[in-house]
User: Which sequence fits this backbone?
């Protein structure tokens, strides 16, 4: 069966190149090639601005190649400009159970979560008027993975508490694809393969066998310079500089007042040497040497080289690559390789322009496709043949249509990403856990496992990596998250075998260890929460026993401040009186099995206790007067609290103000006169009062005391 020729189109800023190819003995055989330049600036910086004008050029290409094919051409492979690419980094972190190994499916799911994080970054940095739906996800690369914060090569089969994956994802504006499709549809073509211009150039100029080297490929077209960086066997990054060959053309046009198309012709003749003759917009003819023309465009060439060098250094981690390959028509700018080498910091020998000679395994059309501008057109055809283009499909996800583009075979995961389905929710996340500290050791309380989502592809069970085809239908029943972690004290405290058996206030007690949470005594049913601190210890002292048995905090000593006759005083009262095996004990006294403990509440402090030194009880004195025994009473002082009369038995309160009145004055000799019935006024016929105390003459104010002997009479 004869192979049907394939059509590929390089729709560039300056021209359109069409190739008709089949498989050849060496790889790819070009049956026919056509190249037509745009007559107007219908494309700028790789973006189609005039669909009708570009369609006319493409239609002419297709018409010529159809005639050579001998059959209608209905399909085409194309490339999108590298300028349209936008790359963003994303990271995903997932809590693990620590008990089971990570599966390939779980790791892949985490990878896709990181892609969605990159999509979120894209959404935050959209330009005015843009929406996240305006971009196609076209691929990603894993930058690294971590397990419990430590970098690791492969997460599959690992166990841990946390897994992380970092990716760099690439997105393509839908407008770029839509404009390409609009042109193809107007020419009766269906897009069967889509690649990116830097990927196409890389496919043929830097094959896989060269990608272990740190290389930079720069495709310098008319409007943009697309850049790709390789190292360690893979492509590290894609980017572009919004400057290219048009910058040189515009420099010539401005310097010599040239129509843009005339300036383009002059630019192409500069590299051939000699003089170049041209006519400006005023009709004046000029003949200028190539040397002068090169000097004229040198500032523009230096700017272009500087922009390219800056992007290469930034993409390559701040250092120059091992070598730089320049392709595309703009790479023919005189002196450009040397300027790029100087700007990057490489020897000029490490920067080279590559043309058709850099491509192996391709035959045909060598006359039309020979220079560096042949790299991308041939690369598009090779990528389409090798299926290394962006896969294309229109898929329904939960009834909603989405269009997919991806560098490899399309999968369910690609469709879900395009539809905005949360990959994180698909896995039925483990319920949120928490941590507590038990006797200084960190313990993790994990949530329960969730229920994974159910994915149906055309009504059949499928996985994230199941392959999808054009017009497939996907139904997703979202997973449910697990329950948050829960734990009681009894679930986590260590078993302490040491128990204490003793008698407390006559009752036998068998006491288990004490458990506190954040310093508060609790029982085994206490629910724990995040960051709780649990302490478990055996009972060893009197205080431990009292805490365990629920006595009100025994360590608290009641402190009462009061004023007594104007002087500030402090009284302290412990809550309990403690006796251990019949002897006084303190809260710190250690215990052992078999001990007998008595714990007695201490009563309140009374007013009489704190004022005893100032209050005297009423006392009786016995005095012998004139040989007869008499009793004389001395009264006590009076107590007031806060201005009111109080009893010595009343309890003392904080901030009381106490006053004690003086007791009756000490008895004096004059106190005896009324006791024995003698008046201090002399009776009739008497004039002198005899007063003796213990045989000595006394006066009215002479003090008397218990046991004294007095003599009183009138003479």
Assistant:
């Amino acid at each position: 069966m004869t192979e049907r020729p394939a059509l590929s189109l390089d729709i560039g800023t300056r021209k359109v190149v069409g190739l008709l190819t089949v498989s050849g003995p060496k790889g790819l055989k070009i049956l026919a090639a056509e190249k037509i330049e745009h007559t107007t600036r219908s494309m700028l910086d790789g973006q189609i601005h005039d669909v009708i004008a570009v369609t006319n050029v493409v239609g002419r290409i297709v018409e010529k190649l159809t005639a050579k094919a001998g059959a209608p051409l209905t399909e085409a492979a194309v490339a999108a400009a590298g300028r349209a690419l936008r790359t963003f980094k994303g990271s995903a972190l997932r809590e693990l159970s620590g008990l089971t190994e990570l599966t390939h499916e779980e790791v892949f799911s985490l990878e896709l979560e990181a892609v969605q994080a990159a999509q979120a970054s894209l959404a935050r940095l959209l330009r005015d008027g843009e929406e996240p739906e305006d971009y196609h996800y076209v691929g990603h690369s894993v930058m690294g993975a971590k397990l419990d914060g430590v970098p690791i090569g492969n997460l599959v089969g690992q166990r841990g508490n946390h897994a992380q994956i970092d990716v760099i994802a690439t997105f393509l504006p839908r407008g770029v694809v839509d404009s390409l499709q609009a042109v193809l549809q107007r020419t009766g073509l269906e897009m069967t393969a889509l690649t990116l211009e830097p990927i196409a150039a890389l496919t043929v100029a830097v094959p896989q066998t060269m990608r272990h080297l740190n290389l930079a490929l720069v495709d310098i077209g008319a409007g943009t310079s697309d850049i790709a960086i390789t190292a360690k066997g893979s492509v590290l990054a894609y980017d572009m500089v919004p400057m290219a060959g048009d910058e040189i053309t515009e420099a010539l046009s401005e310097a010599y007042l040239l129509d843009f198309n005339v300036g383009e012709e002059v630019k192409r003749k500069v590299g051939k040497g000699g003089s170049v003759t041209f006519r400006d917009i005023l009709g004046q003819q000029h003949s200028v040497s190539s040397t002068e023309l090169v000097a004229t465009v040198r500032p523009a060439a230096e700017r272009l080289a500087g922009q390219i060098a800056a992007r290469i250094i930034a993409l390559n981690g701040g250092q120059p690559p091992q070598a730089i390959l320049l392709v595309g028509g703009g790479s023919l700018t005189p002196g450009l390789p040397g300027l790029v080498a100087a700007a990057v910091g490489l020897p000029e020998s490490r920067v080279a322009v590559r043309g058709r000679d850099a491509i192996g395994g391709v035959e045909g059309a060598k006359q039309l496709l020979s220079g560096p501008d042949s790299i991308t057109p041939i690369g598009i055809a090779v990528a389409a043949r090798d299926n290394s283009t962006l896969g294309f499909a229109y898929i329904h996800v939960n009834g909603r249509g989405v269009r997919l583009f991806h560098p490899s075979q399309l999968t369910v995961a690609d469709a879900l990403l395009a539809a905005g389905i949360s990959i994180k929710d698909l896995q039925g996340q483990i319920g949120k856990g928490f941590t507590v500290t038990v006797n200084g050791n960190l313990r993790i309380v994990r949530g329960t496992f969730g229920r994974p989502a159910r994915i149906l592809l055309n009504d059949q069970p499928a996985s994230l990596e199941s392959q999808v085809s054009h017009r497939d239908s996907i139904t997703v029943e979202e997973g449910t998250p697990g329950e948050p972690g829960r734990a009681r004290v009894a679930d986590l405290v260590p078993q302490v075998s040491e128990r204490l058996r003793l008698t407390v206030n006559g009752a036998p007690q068998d006491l288990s260890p004490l458990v506190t949470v954040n310093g508060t005594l609790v029982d085994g049913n206490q629910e724990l929460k995040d960051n709780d601190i649990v302490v478990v210890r055996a009972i060893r002292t009197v205080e431990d026993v009292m805490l365990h048995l629920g006595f009100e905090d025994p360590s608290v000593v009641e402190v009462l401040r009061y004023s007594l006759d104007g002087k500030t005083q402090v009284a302290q009262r412990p809550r309990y009186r403690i006796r251990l095996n019949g002897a006084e004990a303190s809260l710190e006294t250690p215990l052992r099995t078999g001990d007998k403990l008595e714990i007695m509440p201490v009563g309140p402090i009374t007013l009489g206790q704190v004022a005893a030194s100032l209050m005297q009880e009423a006392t009786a004195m016995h005095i012998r007067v004139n040989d007869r025994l008499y009793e004389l009473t001395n009264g006590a002082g009076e107590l007031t609290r806060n201005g009111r009369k109080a009893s010595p038995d009343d309890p003392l309160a904080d901030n009381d103000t106490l006053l004690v009145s003086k007791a009756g004055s000490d008895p004096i000799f004059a106190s005896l006169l009324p006791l024995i019935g003698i008046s201090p006024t002399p009776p009739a016929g008497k004039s002198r009062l005899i007063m003796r105390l213990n045989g000595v003459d006394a006066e009215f104010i002479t003090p008397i005391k218990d046991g004294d002997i007095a003599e009183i009479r009138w003479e």
